[in-house]
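Researcher: For the record, we're logging two predictions in this thread. I'll number them. Prediction 1 follows.
Model: Prediction 1, sequence and structure:
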Amino acid sequence: MHEIRSALRLAGRSPGFTALAVLTMALGIGANAAVFSVVYGVLLRPLPLPGAERLAFITREGDVSLLDGVDWRAESRSFESIALFLRAWAFDLSGSGEPERLRGVVAEPQYFEVVGVRPLLGRVFGEEDNRVGGPHVALISERFWQRRFGRARDAVGQTLILSDNPTTVIGVMPAHADFLQDDVDLWTPAAVVTPWAVGERGTNNFDAMGRLRNGATVEEARAEMVAISRKLEAAYPKTNRNKIVEPIALVEFMVGDVRRALWVLCGAVGFVLLIASVNLASLLLARSSARQDEFALRAALGASRWRIVRQLLVEGLCLAVMGGALGIGLAWLGTDALLALAPEGLPRRAEVAVQWPVVAFGAAVTVAAGLAFSAIPAIHVLRGEAASYLKSGRVMGGDGARQRTLGLLVASEVTLACVLLIGSGLLVRTFLRLQGVPLGFDPSRVLSAQIILPESRYGEKAPQTSAFERILQRAQEIPGVETAAYVTTPPLSPRGGIGNRVLVQDREFPPNQEPGARARPVLGDYFRALRIPIVEGRAFTADDREGAPRVAIVNQRFARQLWPGESALGKRIAWRDWMPEGTWMEVVGVAADVKATTLTGGDVQAVYMPYVQRDQPWQRFGTLVVRARGDAGLLRRGLREAVWTVDPTVPLEDEQTLDERVAEAIAPQQASAFALAVFAGAALLLAVQGLYALLAYAVERRRREIAVRMALGARSQELLRLVIGRGMALTVLGLAVGVPAAILMSSGIQSLLYEVEPTDPFTYALVAVALAAAAFLACAVPAHRAARLDPMAALRSE
């Protein structure tokens, strides 16, 4: 307690030093606690599901059918239960007010056994509810229960009109049942909603999840499922060829590529804390040198070196605790800022908060940092002799060692700042490259909206075609619309569209090894609406109608893959499973590739075809795109009314401009680059502050020497060179270590880069120049002060 009181009195006598130290520490602790709150919430916090560590997401190349799930359950011994489900299935809610699009999950009854979540009210559906032609039932989410029924308990048993089907609410699921963050409104039985999938072994887009038996591991399950996959491949080669199952832990599936970006961010703020600690160690070491009279008096009065060391450690811990307390407070604001910066698709976003593990982490880091930065001056005390404290107060023993230690500390700050600045520079360069990446289409002034026609009234081709043609006609009449069109899958769609195998006339392929392609049926002048260039041949015309010779437009990737070095025009292709045998489409054009799913990936192999010439009646979904003469965002209401004049029960979903879609695609890289740039900027400021503090301290300690030099005729320019030269020498030393360290560490962010090499010379040169310029400015102030020193006043004070 005596040391604590002394430390607090010392802090009060040096308010400027104390404020600088506390704010520096608060910056480091606050940044680390804020980032750790995100890391904990996304990566480390257990999922809010019973036995979540035994849940595995079952993935494979290609889609999963319900019959695959039946076989997996029969053959697997590693899984206690397995369930298939369709994520983000669309339901149209009608019957009162404007129609509304709801997000649902179509699942097998085993789904709730796997996830282990019980309803708040009512019951889950079972095998008796999961039968073709059975009554429509649904479980609603807690959020929808609140919004639609005001949490009334009599919601169970009420009827909703979902996609024209009266559906009975049988239960209410808690909020954590939507653990995949799909904004789920309801869950329904698979056999009732998707009866066509019950007996079909093919492309059904189902996902799968399983609960491991006690003692089973993901690796054991993976080996077992590979063997089962090989067995199914042999039995059903047409639908299961090369479809190998790979279970992964559910949390691993959920966090995906975010894991690496978060650990990179965690490392960046760790660098900031390390620089802050080094900075404070430098300040405390400099202050301990100025306190030699105090240490001499303590030693003369019988204080041991350990007693003096203990005082220094307590002083450092007091500063750390004050900075840590302020830092934890800043973490609340920092966490909100990070979430505001993060893309909307951040996994487990709702679970991120400053909770007790974050506070415990902040407290641990505070104590560790406090001991670390106060240990360096304490070590110098331990290494000194007691008699040194009684020497002349102006030439203290070990002062040269302190100067060398201070120099190394400042150089290390420059090294750490260099590594962090180079990493942020590489990510900023990636962000700039993505902003200028060729899209293959023009997103400006284009509004898109997804539409799905209910199967009950639009189950056949004729009503589907009629509805979309009338909708496009109404959309074209909206004031301000230049061009309206329709496509099943627009650019930058996560799944890239529905695909099939393609047959090529006069070409033979091994069974089940025909080239695959994504189908993109279009209606209206789609290529003009999105300004996708037709690089060869022609676009579709009004003559490409139903009953006319079938035509197709392929993208460049498909043309290069099938007909390298020759023209694709005139070639004849067909969908293997979607067209009557002997029916062919003639390729009349080649369209430019577009960014199909992400900005960093290319286009998939794609075949465009007139919507009116399709054969599949299930293609009752798609996206309307309208190019505006002005602001596309102003067309939202007009587009809804255009649809509702054709069918007032059909809602629109995902209404956004293509510029907004592009912004969403670039958001993860933008967030990483911005966050890392902020922390790199903080590191630069701390490093510059440390360099300035060192040189200011050196000038103050060498006042007599400088005064003597000036009295003997030294010029101001020589003193400027003396001070600036030392500072720049430390900067060069820091850069000499920092650049190779950055080269070694940049490989860790290589997966986050796009068209930027981890050793990009422009970034390295720019960082080196920026650091050198900042260091020069930091050196200039104390150098100018030394050059203006009055030698007579300095010598009189001696």
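Researcher: Logged. Prediction 2.
Model: Prediction 2, sequence and structure:
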Amino acid sequence: MKILKFGGTSLANATMFLRSSQIIQKSFENEQVAVVLSAPEKITNFLINIIENSIKKKSISCEIYEIKKIFSELISNIHQKNNNFPHKLVTEIIENKFLKLKRIFNGINLLEQCPDNIRAKIICYGELLSVIIMENILKSNSHEVTIINPKKNLLATGGYLDSTIDIYISTSRIHSINIPKNHIILMAGFIAGNKKNELVVLGRNGSDYSAAILSVCLKGKICEIWTDVDGIYTCDPKYIKDAKLLKALSYQEAIELSYFGANVLHPKTIAPLSEFKIPCLIKNTKNPSSHGTIIHKNSNDTVTSIKGITHLNNIIMFCIEKYKENNMISITSRIFSIMSLNKIEIILVTQCSPEFSINFCISKNYMEKTFNVLKNEFHLELKNKLLRPIKIIKNLAILSIIGSGITTQKNSFHKIFLKLSKIYIKIFSISQELSKNSISIVIHNNHILSGTKAIHDILFKNRNFYSAELFLIGIGGVGNTLLNQLQKQQYQLKSKNINLKICGIANSKKILKNVENGINLNNWKESFSITEEPFKINDLISLSKHNNLINPIIVDCTSDQKIADQYAKLLTSGFNIVASNKKANTSNMQYYKNIRSSALHSNKKFLYETNVGAGLPIIENLKHLFYAGDKLIHFRGILSGSLSFIFGKLEENILLSEATKQARELGFTEPNPKDDLSGIDVARKLLVLAREIGLNLELKDIKINPILPEKFNHISNSNDFITQLQDLDQVFYDRIKKIAKNGKTLRFVGIINKQGSCEVKIDEVNKQDPLYEIKNGENALAFYSKYYNPIPLVLRGYGAGKVVTAAGVFSDILRILL
């Protein structure tokens, strides 16, 4: 005997109904079958909605007509595909059923209430009609049918809407039915009867439960659950597109997957199958040739002992902590007792220190009720400060990893926890179930999908351990060079288990995207030239959420204030940010602090090493020194590679205008060299450094002693600017010659004084000054500090050019991963 159960999606329309009947008939060729049927898809929800509207005295005529129309079209379409189907007879039966149903709804409308016994009768109408339709399809194909009446033959205890079947009495009743061997057996799912012979229903996944019970009662050799997917997957394939189909699960693994949120059979269904050792096969009505997933005593799936990852959203954690005087064992016992009495399910319990605290998780729906119950139960302990105030952590989710022998996977779990830390997912709690078939991790609700995807990659795909999705904004000199560097380093990165997927490339107007596979860097320019999609920051945020990106990074290689103004929002939305753009760090102090607050609260990184010294590791080294207790006394530095080059050329008797022209041609300057010679860029870099050491300054507080007279402020064309610069050639030539006689030269320097004031100026330096030798595009930063004095810490290296700046950006990207 084989038991087949068909869910609502398998009976959604005429095509599916007939396909299900074909599966039944094919199975019947080899052995007798018993079939359990659900209501057609969405019918039960329609009926529940009509009940609620009847109670509210809303008009329900249209809704009844719509649901009746669904069945009328269903049997009409079946008749078109099967001329032998008794269309007229079934239509009359359905008409009579809906007349009775309408009278029940009228009664509810008058009473403005619907008792549970009446509600149970209504919500199972779909199952009863499915049996009538399937019976007549099978009879039209010359099959004999026996219908088991579940109300009469399945004895249940409990409420009208969520009963549990007595297996042994139900088995005795069904055995008393004399069912011929040549009959196909049909039974409506979801339905049973109580001791008073009243109709009751079986609650969530009731039809699956009916199929499991019927399998036991008929001593079936297998229970097949036919649905709209090929079986059970390692993750929900709606969210994780590359989830893998599992060939087999043990009963216990299936129970734990279901308990922690997977769309698998309910534990209530699995329990009788497990007790009587009846295998359960999950199959796809739309794809009968798929082997499906079998649930039985031993999974024996050779792919992996870890079977799946699932999650529960909208979880609340309660934290109960005692002061030293109280007995936590007694407190824990009372918590379990009062939660049980108030019918509040505790999903997960963790006790990091059994002597002092207990944390437990519940559904969000029970938060207020739980708080009131705990407050009333422990009001004396709280009043007398034997317990600390009850702490509630909201917006959590439980991510669970399921599999037999899961405790043996120590290496995998090391990788999992390391990966979660790398993508900045905070773990609130970890719990291992007593069955040793699951480990659960409590994290923030917003991180559940990215966390699931990251863990799935590690466990089931052996995907590169360090991974990120990059969105590059700005494809000028630095951005374009960065893409070239990424393209050249792809093989080397993958050999080191680093996977950088370029998901987006944008300029100020448009964006090229490929989130699924990443953009091919060999021909990105051709692809970018033909894309017409406009670039919008909000679209990137939506894209990240929709695709559940694991570790998205915005790489800003522009100098755009509008993009910099979006950093706080991007960080809050789950992006890390790497920026060569200095505008965010030199905006007003309030926004500067807001960015860091957003990064802290969202647990994301904002890195900007190239804001000061292109590829030089200045910011990170400075932070480490101050973390170690150092304190800045004085700072002097050459912070502009372009001005380092220009002032170095002046020593070689090259005129200012010609040196500036050469710097522009080498890519050392901004498109208009006036931006370099104005000193504002150096002032911005100095401000970044000043804020890093804790000075509360604005850009206007940096004193700039200008290189250029005011008349240059109005020149906007770069060629005109260099031409006009010739007016200063002789001035700088004479000055260099004059100070050279005293062993000095000119350098454009940024200074942070002892008092915390900052200035930018042309300085005369001698050969003993660490800045004297700095030219040809180099930067040098001399930090005089508590630890480095009188000999300063000097960081020196190229500070200009798109190659070193792009390399600095690249380095920041890797720092987020590694």
